[in-house]
Amino acid sequence: SEVASVGGMVRQYQVVLDPERMRALNLSHQQIASAIQDSNQEGGGSVLEIGSAEYMVRTSGYLKKLDDFNNIVITARDGIPILLSDVASVRMGPEIRRGVAELNGEGEVAGGIIVMRYGKNALETINGVKAKLQQIQQTLPAGVEIVPVYDRSQLITHAIDSLSFKLLEEFLV
């Protein structure tokens, strides 16, 4: 099974552009977006042969901290680089919220939906998830809890009991 997350806060880097500085330096949004994109990617390499060994060479250019963003070169004028920090401020912040989940009308919650793999036994999967949730609950900080809101195990157990009763009834008739 797998868990599909719902709700909660996702952190992201936010680039807040200064339109006055952009206008003064004659820079467009597209130039800045392209510079950020070009500075945040891996580059393929080749194979380096040393003796009888081969080594894979590649570059990892992913931006990992605020200074990495601030030092992105957007362009150069007369040999002087114009950095992202010259026209924008970069900060960590929350992603735009696309949905909020509540539980019984009280406060925000983060949610997860357990998705069972095709062909697996539903009751075994549910019982396995319950055992794992009990294990995880013990490691959570005070005030944080995992609350199942929909549990199909009772429905499955009831269906099995009904089927068993009907089979026994038919067998006796």
TrEMBL record:
Keyword entries, A-Z = Kinase, Transferase
Q: Which GO terms describe its cellular component?
A: plasma membrane
Has the keyword Kinase been applied to this entry? yes
Q: One Pfam family of this protein, by short name?
A: ACR_tran
- State one molecular function term (GO): kinase activity
Q: Which residues cross the membrane?
A: none
Does the record bear Kinase in its keywords? yes
Tree of life domain: Bacteria
- Show the PANTHER family listed in the entry: CATION EFFLUX SYSTEM PROTEIN CUSA, PTHR32063
Q: What is this protein called?
A: Glutamate 5-kinase-like
Q: Organism source for this protein?
A: Yersinia entomophaga
Upper lineage is: Bacteria, Pseudomonadati, Pseudomonadota, Gammaproteobacteria, Enterobacterales
